[in-house]
Amino acid sequence: MTAACKMKGVVFRFATDVTADPSMLTPFDRIVIASGAAYRFGLGLFAAWALDSGAARWPGIAQLLSNAKLRDWFYYRGRRATTGRFKRLTRPGQTTIVIGDAIKAGKSKQAITSAFDAALLPKAG
């Protein structure tokens, strides 16, 4: 997927804080920002620990996390959207897509694929 993006002229910038220097976004027509999630209630530390340590695959925790209601709550209620803080940094006419951080541990195949799909969308017009 990375090779396909590079062949289409996609420019990757890793570990870059565009909020510190929004001017780096100026030359681009389409911007895909993998911002990760902002968790409420201190859940970010738990999520990072569970994913990075592999604890999310332990039998008891895996069973708990496989509960659809809990997963949906965690995803839709336990997190805060980060899109607004990035969209205000762009200029009119730029397409901005904010997705989760697909490079961190525990990301699903769908999350990783969505990052590349967003970068490879056909240009409008």
Strand content: 5-15%
Strand numbers in spatial order across the main sheet:
1-4
Helix content: 40-55%
Average the pLDDT over all residues and give the rounded result. 76
What are the segments in which pLDDT stays under 50 over at least 5 consecutive residues? none
Structural class: alpha+beta
Number of beta strands: 4
List SSEs in N-to-C order: HEEHHHEHEH
| Annotation field: number of helices | 6
Radius of gyration: 16 Å
- What form results from the Cα inertia axes? globular
Distance between the termini: 24 Å
The main β sheet shows up as: 2 strands, parallel
Structure, described:
This protein has 125 residues and is of the alpha+beta class. Helices cover 40% and strands 11% of the residues. It is built from 6 helices and 4 strands. The protein has helices spanning 2-7, 43-53, 59-65, 68-76, 83-87, 109-120, and strands at residues 30-34, 38-39, 79-80, 95-99. The chain has a two-stranded parallel sheet with strand order 1-4. Strands 2-3 form a two-stranded antiparallel ribbon. The longest helix is centred in the C-terminal third of the chain and has 12 residues, at 109-120. The protein is globular and about 50 Å long. It starts with a helix and ends in a 5-residue tail after the last helix.
Note the topology.
Blueprint: H1 2-7, E1 30-34, E2 38-39, H2 43-53, H3 59-65, H4 68-76, E3 79-80, H5 83-87, E4 95-99, H6 109-120
In short:
This protein is 40% helix and 11% strand. With 125 residues, it is of the alpha+beta class.
